[in-house]
Write a structure and sequence with these properties.
CATH superfamily: Acid Proteases
CATH architecture: Beta Barrel
Radius of gyration: 21 Å
Strand content: 25-35%
Protein name: DUF3443 domain-containing protein
Oligomer: single chain
Distance between the termini: 20 Å
Number of helices: 6
Organism: Paraburkholderia rhynchosiae
CATH topology: Cathepsin D, subunit A, domain 1
Number of strands: 27
Length: 434
């Protein structure tokens, strides 16, 4: 995942080291001029083309203990299509000295909580115990790699509350930017720019709530693979950081999978938005699936996935693709040579002369199959109104033709379910549903 500033960046999701890297193109978008009509299917924005019918599901009110509001708007740094929630961070075993942090990006394409250290009060930060590894109790740090950059910082433990749900115990989180740039390892970390500030991220942190319970899994726990692929680094004395194996219980963890209750999954519910975009949108994040009266799976179509929530047997334009539903991506990202790309002002986005519709066939490991249609409007048209931050027809190019990123535009007007991977304890396989 990686958002776009309205003047700007494109953020793809965090992936485990052995997973496929997504090479999404960075984009710069300006604004200016009067907006086009915001009514659905306005001829002024369709320009002779057509869009598929928009989904019409509405979010439930975020009034129950297992819910929290999702907000899309200008946020902390003018980022379009960035869904944010509030998260409360407490020292382990304490309900005192806590801090609620707003504008945390909700990302279903990554796993674990990452908070920019500078937004935490010094008293709170100092009360979060740093993690250590090895016989010499070396400080544990993580290099969380994204398509266009990385976050670097220590791993610490904290009790996390979101809405009315709290982790049963303290869980590992990453504190972004709390280590000096000089400590970034020369090998095994980098590839793009450091994203260790609020300005870089366009948010105060990232809440990864995808299907995996931790952010790296066996790759980082197994010494044989960790030596070359681990996200984690042992830093004796806080410096000289080198890759290290890390047990699962010390890896940055998906907080929602560690709640005391309603911990088997969640639902992202976003309202419909006009085809031309709108200034803001408010949805609801619902914790648990089939655990309470407000989180029933109902008639949603269920697609079992790999551990990271990917639908690896999907097809687009006759080619097999790895598809994924990622609230942390600001747009649809895929490769289609028939779509005109924007000029340098909106590099990386599609700017077709008329409204377009494309269809992708999503296929679960359980063989459940459906065709999902998406709409595409010119990014230049959508960005014509600099006051709009929520868009459902924005698309851009992704490196290669083997991935299809169903970003936040796919979520508007839908209830999208994520079932957490519980197979290690003999429970459910990971799935997505809508």
């Amino acid at each position: 995942m990686r958002p776009i500033h309205i003047g700007v960046n494109l953020k793809d999701r965090l992936r485990a080291a052995l997973a496929v890297a997504l090479l999404a193109t960075l984009a710069a978008c300006g604004g200016g001029g009067d907006s086009g009509s915001s009514s659905n299917n306005s001829s002024s924005i369709l320009n002779g083309g057509s869009l598929p019918a928009s989904p019409t599901q509405q979010p439930i009110a975020a009034t129950a203990a297992n819910t929290v509001p999702i907000t899309v708007g200008r946020g902390v740094n003018g980022v379009i299509n960035i869904p944010s929630v509030s998260v409360t961070i407490c020292p382990p075993g304490s309900t005192a000295g806590c801090q609620t942090v707003n504008n945390i990006q909700l990302d279903t394409g990554s796993f674990g909580l990452r908070v920019v250290g500078s937004v935490l009060l010094p008293t709170v930060l100092n009360a979060l115990p740093p993690s250590a590894v090895g016989s010499n109790n070396a400080q544990l740090a993580e290099c969380a790699t994204f398509a266009d950059g990385f976050t670097w910082g220590t791993v610490r433990t904290a009790t996390i509350t979101i809405g009315g749900e709290t982790t049963a115990t303290a869980v590992p989180i990453q504190i972004i930017g709390d280590k000096d740039a000089s400590t970034v390892p020369a090998s095994g970390c980098g590839g793009g720019s450091a994203e260790n500030t609020v300005n870089d991220l366009g948010a105060n942190g990232i809440l990864g709530v995808g299907t995996a319970p931790s952010d790296c899994g066996a790759t980082c726990a197994n010494l044989a693979t960790a030596v070359n692929f681990s996200n984690y680094f042992a830093c004796p004395g806080g410096t000289s950081c080198t890759r290290t194996a890390v047990p699962l219980n010390q890896q940055v963890a998906n907080p929602a999978a560690n709640f005391a209750a309603d911990n088997n999954g969640l639902i992202v519910q976003m309202p419909p938005v006009p085809d031309a975009g709108t200034a803001s949108a408010t949805g609801t994040l619902v914790f648990g699936i089939n655990t309470q009266s407000n989180n029933a799976l109902g008639g949603a179509q269920v697609f079992t996935t790999d551990p990271f929530g990917d639908l690896n047997n999907s097809t687009f334009n006759g080619t097999k693709v790895q598809a994924f539903l990622d609230s942390g991506s600001n747009a649809y990202f895929f490769t289609d040579s028939s779509l005109a790309q924007c000029g340098s002002n909106f590099a990386g986005f599609y700017c077709p002369s008329s409204a377009q519709t494309r269809s992708i066939t999503l296929v679960g490991l359980n063989k459940v199959t459906t065709n999902a249609s998406i709409g595409i409007l010119s990014a230049a048209t959508l960005f014509n109104n600099p006051s709009n931050y929520a868009f459902n027809n924005l698309a851009g190019q992704i490196g290669g033709n083997s991935s299809f990123d169903l970003g936040l535009p796919f979520f508007y007007g839908r209830h999208v379910y994520y079932g957490f991977d519980k197979t290690s304890g003999g429970g459910q396989s990971p799935f997505v549903a809508f």
